[in-house]
Amino acid sequence: MADKIVVTGCQGMLGQAVVSLLSLTSTEHEVVPLTREDLDITDDKQVMKVLGKIKPQVVINCAAYTDVDGAEDEKHVALAVNARGVRNIAMAAVEHRIFVCHFSTDYIFDGKKKEPYREWDEHWPLNYYGMSKQGGEEMLASIWDGYLLIRTSWLYGPGGKNFVDTVRGKLEAGEKLKVVDDQFGAPTYVGDLAATAIVLADLRARGRYHYTNDAGNGVSWYEVAREIAVITGHDPEQITPIKTADIEQKAERPAHSVLGLQKIKEVLPSMVRSWKDALRSYLEKK
Ligand SMILES: NC(=O)c1ccc[n+]([C@@H]2O[C@H](COP(=O)([O-])OP(=O)(O)OC[C@H]3O[C@@H](n4cnc5c(N)ncnc54)[C@H](OP(=O)(O)O)[C@@H]3O)[C@@H](O)[C@H]2O)c1
C-alpha cells in the first residue's frame, strides 16, 4: 500500500536514517521529512494543523530530547518534548486516523534485572530522560491504539554525536581513553533500526517491540570501545576500563539495560544481526 509518511525530527540521527532509507528504497511511499522548524511537536495546535493539512497515513516520530545528562537540569524541556510532544502527535493521530511509529529507550528500566528486559516488564527509570520517555510511552498508549512503539539502545551512525564515532576519533588522535566496564547494554546501528521500523510500520505492527543489535545478555561500553579499536586497527590498550563510580555524570544510568529480542526475532528474524557484525560494517564503510 502506498503511504504518505511524515518523519518528524528528520535532522536527528535516526530521522536522517529513516528519511534516507525511505527515499532510497521506496518507490511507492511519499516521504514528508519535517524539521523542528517545520513542526515543533511541543506545540499542540501546530501538530494538529500540520498533520491535518498533510494527511499522512503514517507518522514516524524521530523527534526527541535525547541529552541524558542535560535532562537533569532541563526536566521541563525533556518532558515537553518526550511526553507532551508524543501526546500531541497521538491526539492528532486520533483525529486524522494516522498510524504512529514511535521510539523509546532502555533507560526506562532501572537495570537491576540480570537478564534482558521483555516488552512487558515493569519499568522504573533512574533519570529524568528515562522518566520523560516513559511519559511519552504512557501518553501514546492511553490515547491511541494505532501505534507501534520500538524501544532501542545505544544508537550510533552517521549524522549524530555518538559513542562509536567519539571513540574512533580519539583512537585516531592517539589519545588514551577511560571507558566504563560496569554498564551493560547493546549498541544499535541506526540504519538497522530505521530499516526494521519501516518494515514494521509497513506491516502496521502494533504494540511494543524491542530492537537493538544482538549482544546476547549485553556488552559493556568498554568491550564496545575495545572492539572499535580492533576493527579500526588501533591498539586496544589505549583504552582503560573504569567503574561508573569513578566518573561524574549528572544522570544515573542503569547497570544492565539489555533489551530482549525474542519478539522481533520471531517476527523479522533476518533484521537482527550481531552487534559485532553491525559495528564492523559501519566502521569499514567510513
Ligand atoms: N541516541 C540514542 O542512543 C538512543 C538510545 C535509545 C533510544 N533513543 C531514541 O531514539 C529516538 C531517536 O534518537 P536520536 O538519537 O536520533 O535523537 P537526536 O539525534 O537527538 O535527534 C532528535 C531530533 O529531534 C528534534 N527535536 C527536538 N525537539 C523537538 C521538537 N520540540 N519538535 C520537533 N523536533 C524536535 C531535534 O532537532 P534539533 O536538531 O533541532 O535539536 C533532532 O533533530 C528518540 O526517541 C530517542 O529517545 C535514542
Count of structural domains: 1
Low-confidence stretches: none
CATH superfamily: NAD(P)-binding Rossmann-like Domain
Largest sheet: 6 strands, parallel
End-to-end Cα distance, whole Å, is 35 Å
Strand content: 15-25%
Number of strands: 12
Write up this protein.
It is a single chain. The chain is an alpha/beta fold and 286 residues long. It has one domain: NAD(P)-binding Rossmann-like Domain (Rossmann fold), CATH 3.40.50. The protein is built from 10 helices and 12 strands. It has helices spanning 13-25, 44-54, 70-73, 75-96, 128-143, 163-172, 190-202, 221-231, 262-267, 275-285, and strands spanning 4-8, 30-34, 58-61, 99-105, 147-152, 155-156, 177-180, 184-185, 188-189, 207-210, 219-220, 239-242. It has a 6-stranded parallel β-sheet, with helices on both faces. Strands 6-9 form a two-stranded parallel ribbon. It has a two-stranded parallel ribbon with strand order 7-12. The longest helix has 22 residues, at 75-96. The radius of gyration is 19 Å and the shape is globular. NADP nicotinamide-adenine-dinucleotide phosphate binds next to helix 1, helix 4 and strand 4. NADP nicotinamide-adenine-dinucleotide phosphate binds at residues 8-9, 11-15, 36, 39-42, 62-66, 81, 85, 103, 105, 133, 152-155, 160.
Features:
286 residues; alpha/beta; Rossmann fold; 6-stranded parallel β-sheet; globular; binds NADP nicotinamide-adenine-dinucleotide phosphate
Mind sketching the topology for me?
Elements: E1 4-8, H1 13-25, E2 30-34, H2 44-54, E3 58-61, H3 70-73, H4 75-96, E4 99-105, H5 128-143, E5 147-152, E6 155-156, H6 163-172, E7 177-180, E8 184-185, E9 188-189, H7 190-202, E10 207-210, E11 219-220, H8 221-231, E12 239-242, H9 262-267, H10 275-285
Parallel strand pairs: 1-2, 1-3, 3-4, 4-5, 5-10, 6-9, 7-12
Antiparallel strand pairs: 8-11
The chain binds NADP nicotinamide-adenine-dinucleotide phosphate.
